[in-house]
Design brief:
single chain; about 180 residues; mainly alpha; about 75% helix
Length: about 180
């Protein structure tokens, strides 16, 4: 019979929360940043092909197809990464044993995570307001929505869900984990 052992190195705890905040922000930033540069490369290639008289050729159509594909896929890649990170934190929190006495300490430390999330959301807003990035940000509505307006709310949902799974489960063992 397969038994699930509790994770001994306490994944789903405060450092994992800060990693999640940092990884989500950096992933969104890197995806948008590289998309900005690749879009410029596509534009320059298309201008070069048009200047050489190769407009409406298979090369020009391939560049347009690549631009269309890139515009649609990377926003969903970021959403998938955010959901996968959220679900992995929930699974790891469920299988971690932690004493219920640490509930208030976790809450205080998680509030620091909220401060970091708000600061990163403000940083993203400044990035989105920059004239050079406005057209790129407009191609990423999901990423912009999650990292700008809803990043503190998303982090709050992560914190509350992880707290429920870390401290709200009953442990059948006597090793000091859970509430039981």
């Amino acid at each position: 019979m397969l038994k699930c052992k509790p994770v001994q190195n306490k994944k789903g705890d405060i450092p994992s929360l800060f990693y999640a905040i940092a990884v989500l922000f950096l992933t969104g930033f890197i995806i948008v940043f590289f998309s900005h540069f690749t879009f410029d490369i596509y534009d320059k290639l298309e201008d070069r092909l048009d200047g050489m008289g190769y407009s409406n050729t298979s090369a020009d159509n391939a560049i347009n197809t690549a631009q269309t594909w890139e515009n649609s896929i990377w926003d969903y890649v970021f959403l998938s990464i955010a959901i996968a990170y959220f679900l992995s934190l929930l699974v790891l929190a469920f299988f971690s044993n932690i004493n219920a006495l640490f509930y208030f300490i976790y809450g205080i430390m998680a509030s620091l995570g909220m401060i970091v999330a708000v600061a990163l959301a403000n940083l993203w807003e400044k990035l989105a307001e920059a004239q050079a990035m406005q057209t790129t940000i407009a191609r990423f509505p999901i990423t912009n929505l999650l990292l700008d307006n809803y990043f503190p709310i998303f982090v709050t949902v992560i914190i509350l869900s992880v707290m429920v799974l870390l401290f709200g489960k009953f442990s059948g063992s006597r090793d000091g984990g859970g509430l039981g």
